[in-house]
Amino acid sequence: MKTEIHAETGNEVNPVNNENILFDYQTIQKLDKQFGSSFYLLNVDKLRDNYQKIEEAFKSKYESFIIGYSYKTNYLPYLCKQLSELGAYAEVVSRLEYDLAIKLGENPKRIIFNGPLKSEEDINLALKNESIINIDSIYEIEFVKEYALNNPNQLIKVGLRLNFDISQDGKSPLQEGYDVSRFGICIESGNFQYVINEFKAIENIKLAGLHGHFSTRNREVESYRRITQKLCDIAKEYITDSIDYIDIGGGIYGELPKSFNKTVPTFDDYAEAICQIMNKEFESFEKKPTLILEPGMAMVANTFHFISKVIETKTIRGKYFVLVEGSVHNIKPTMHKHNLPMRIIRQKKYNKSKQVFNIVGYTCMEKDYLAHEITADLPHKNDYIIFENVGAYTIVFNPPFIKERPCIVAADKNEIFVVRKKETIEQFFNEEIYCF
Ligand SMILES: Cc1ncc(COP(=O)(O)O)c(C=O)c1O
Predict the structure, then answer these.
(1) Does ligand 1 lie within 6 Å of residue 97's CB atom?
(2) How confident is the model at residue 5 (pLDDT cuts 50, 70, 90)?
(3) Which of 6, 40, 212, 214 has the smallest set of CB atoms within 10 Å of its CB?
(4) What's the pTM?
(5) Class of the CATH-defined domain 45-295
(6) What spacing in Å lies between the alpha carbon of 391 and ligand 1's midpoint?
(7) Is the separation of the CB atoms in 267 and 54 below 8 Å?
């Protein structure tokens, strides 16, 4: 249900072109009264903009291209629905996410079911629904075989998530410095060959796709070259007659806020490298395989702000602490120490007082810092602090710790409306699941 609430934002509302949307004190104060002293703001125009830019970058270079939006990055139902309406498939990694996609009215054939944990029931459902399914581990093979034998008249199409070495100059680019990824079916160990043999033995199973997602530290274009090349080579060597799609996973950079001062590859840079390989490798194919990209961060990170009210500014032995109605959990669930881009919306003009201060949250944890050692004019009680770029892996990781989850409001053209209400104590301690 969409509750429409119009905020008087005047003529300035244009979230994509004018980042100052809503950001005058009176407007935020009004929203505070309606939605609470801390809330997320989803910029729907920015979301559309991201989708269209990614699609254009790839489609202009390789026609048969699909975006599978990575639900886990932010499965706010309203957001998933918007992306679906734009044309995105749903990339899900659990039955919970699968069922959400169905609940949102997604065509099951437009769901990509990934992830390391799928029950026999999950696999049966996905196969019955003809969803795209990428097998991650050997145990899933038995479920697929069993289903195929029980349904001899159905052609069962499955994909495999592959695991191979993507090191450059002997160095692994994987996140956290891992040498080896724990996901997918290993080519080097012989597991891949085993799976090929198992599936070949059953007539109504078709190996339709290859998937290769690797979460890398620097999201470099070179990693995507390697992934794409390897998937193409394997497809041509083993499943040249049955290949329908090459899925290169997610992990690309999106547009970063200017204040990050960091130059990263553009959507065009990624598309150029990936599509050039796809075009070359499948040049002679009558029907080229579809290219699937599964962006998460790149699609949603810059579409969310978190707005929190300043409760107090205090000094403790010469250090300044600004307490806000919010927590590090709301904006950085991994508790990393980099400061996000932020701005302070002040109630009035105070005498300038540049200081170094920390912004701290409502939990009782010492390490609940939303920002460290900011140098700026000190914020005062009733000012607001807006943290930017908080759309990815925030609301999905937000633990129910100490306080109810805040409201999420969306801004779309001239409208502001609630897409997740502020949680109540009844919802937090749901009587259907807790015993009192
Ligand atoms: C299979 C798969 N696809 C897509 C993604 C999205 O990655 P990102 O949010 O970095 O784009 C992930 C993230 O871990 C993933 O595991």
Answers:
(1) no
(2) very low
(3) 6
(4) 0.94
(5) alpha beta
(6) 14
(7) yes
Q: Answer yes or no: is pLDDT of 13 > 80.
A: no
Nearest to 307 by CA among 344, 340, 332, 338: 344
Tens digits of residue pLDDT in 343-395: 999 999 888 889 999 999 999 999 999 999 999 999 999 999 999 999 999 99
Residue with token string 């992306």: 83
Q: Which 3 state secondary structure label does DSSP give 5?
A: strand
| Ligand 1 center–CA 163 separation, angstroms | 15
Using alpha carbons, select from 270, 370, 277 the residue that is nearest to residue 325.
370
Cβ 90 vs Cβ 106: under 8 Å: yes
Report how far apart, in Å, the C-alpha atoms of 426 and of each of 22, 431, 433 are.
Answer: 31, 7, 11
* pLDDT of the residue at 353: 82
215: Cβ below 6 Å to ligand 1?
A: yes
Domain boundaries, the chain: 3-43+303-428, 45-295
* pLDDT surpassing 60 at residue 332: yes
Check pocket membership of 73 for ligand 1, CB cut-off 6 A.
Answer: yes
Q: Are 144 and 188 in contact (CB under 8 A)?
A: no
Cβ atoms 100, 111 nearer than 8 A: no
Amino acid letter for position 313: T
403 CB burial (10 A radius; 0-12, 13-18, 19+):
middle
Cβ pair 409, 416 in contact under 8 A: yes
- Measured in whole angstroms, the distance separating CA 84 from the mean position of its chain's CA atoms is 14
